[in-house]
Amino acid sequence: MTGEINIFRLFFLSVMGYLSISATAELKKYQFDIQVKNVSRLCHAKPIVTVNGMFPGPTVYVREGDRVLINVTNYAQYNMSIHWHGLKQYRNGWADGPAYVTQCPIQTGQSYTYDFNVTGQRGTLWWHAHISWLRATVHGAIVIMPKQGTSYPFPQPDFEFNLLLGEWWNDDVEEVVKQGNKLGLPPKTSDAHTINGKPGPLFLCSEKHTYAIEVEQGKTYLLRIINAALNDELFFAINGHKLTVVEVDAVYTKPFSTNAILIAPGQTTNVLVRADQVPDRYFMAARPFMDAPISVDNKTATAILQYKGIPNTIVPKLPQLPSLNDTNFALNYNSKLRSLNSPQFPAKVPLKVDRHLFYTIGLGANPCPTCQNGTRLTASLNNITFLMPQIGLLQAHYYNLKGVFTMDFPDHPPTPFNYTGAPLTANLGTTVSNLPRLSKIAFNSTVELVLQDTNLLSVESHPFHLHGYNFFVVGSGIGNFDPNKDPAKYNLVDPPERNTVGVPTGGWTAIRFRADNPGVWFIHCHLELHTGWGLKTAFVVENGPSPDYSILPPPKDLPPC
Ligand code: C2O
């Protein structure tokens, strides 16, 4: 979608908003047709799975308080489900979307209507396919406008643009992942990074494939930036222009100014940019952050910020991005993120913790006689590699079906060890259980989860995403978490509130949330590579004291398995 269309649609929506006399929520309806379309990038064309033939897919524009119906019809050869990443889906896991967790996928030729309310949230989120690697091309933005009569807690921007950062493979991604699994190795890294589906002019045959926005001197722009990449954390910057961060994961932050942002797969970041430089053409650029010895696609995607009246013939300059392994930039950037915590948007951080969880993140290698090295790479939480079930976990929980999962996921790793010490090539007895093991959480209890990276095979940064909730990132550090010393350093006043957080390479992150949303909620690394290897589990949050605090009945058209 071009910037012009974005401007037009937003303008249209805001005019409609001001003219409308009714302050009540609206019903917004969308039709998503999953279709295969031939798309050309980097000198060749290939069929990709899309929504409505668009790449990236259509933006879902809603207003806080709206009810949204999105009918998804699957015309592709792959079974499909769509996740509305960051929407809390209160009591309504049926609309959450992760395949085999809250629903069975929509089979070829079938439809399912995602029916949900947008309550108590405003800002930028996104939607994506939640099965295998299909989200590489099946994704789009969700823009939640504040309630009518409510403004942003920052100066009103003149215009807004969505920037979806992605990864492009010249091959069919489903073949790429199959190949990796067969060899037991990471599949080939992506061939390009993209901004709104386009790699920009640093790539061959990409003249036509450059995204550009036009700005006017003196005006202020809100950029809604989404990292839709499968496996890469990214830096993003605009040559010559400061970025003011005002929101992450659809929660307002204390504004701060920076030359570059860091954004992990799954995360969103809203920044204000003032067109206050000499009228010219400037590159916007995105490139990975990787401070572990892991190979990554280090190519730079670019798009153009062009002042009105400047001819297309002028060659823009690249911004200075932090280097690939700039750990200090990453730590420093993350430490600047603070919730706005204003009277209108308070940070309701749980101060008392009912349940303490400590999960270790491990990469490992299991024996595999048919694989290239005789081993297959795998990943685990508390030494457990999660296997996907054949039917939806939420249905199994709701209907009390036996033999689908167990509720004995351990609160701690089986044996403590020096998590981030010398590399441990041994596997420490990682188990693949036959049934998925989940963790039962009491309704409305407060939970603290410490995610600890380990040096099994290699340390690495892992963006963890929790479905059904936002959480507060109360603390984070390098090395092993120290339960005696580290909690004293927590920020319990204005920590960032988000749905996806990067656990630093060889470090830990502590998050807190109140389990007030009953259902089965997936928690996983948002690097698709690691999710596929088993770096995931789910919380079963029990029903509350009455039907008003319990899981809603399933919709009639919930896809069968
Ligand atoms: Cu954005 Cu479980 O995913």
Automatic annotation (TrEMBL):
One of its GO terms (biological process) is lignin catabolic process. Residues 34-148, 161-309, 409-544 form the Plastocyanin-like domain. Coiled coil: none annotated. It is an enzyme of class 1 (oxidoreductase). CDD domains: CuRO_1_LCC_plant, CuRO_2_LCC_plant, CuRO_3_LCC_plant. The keyword Oxidoreductase applies. It catalyses: 4 hydroquinone + O2 = 4 benzosemiquinone + 2 H2O. Its cofactor is Cu cation. InterPro entries: Cu-oxidase-like_N, Cu-oxidase_2nd, Cu-oxidase_C, Cu-oxidase_fam, Cu_oxidase_CS, Cu_oxidase_Cu_BS, Cupredoxin, CuRO_1_LCC. Its EC number is 1.10.3.2. Pfam families: Cu-oxidase, Cu-oxidase_2, Cu-oxidase_3. Belongs to the multicopper oxidase family. This is Laccase.
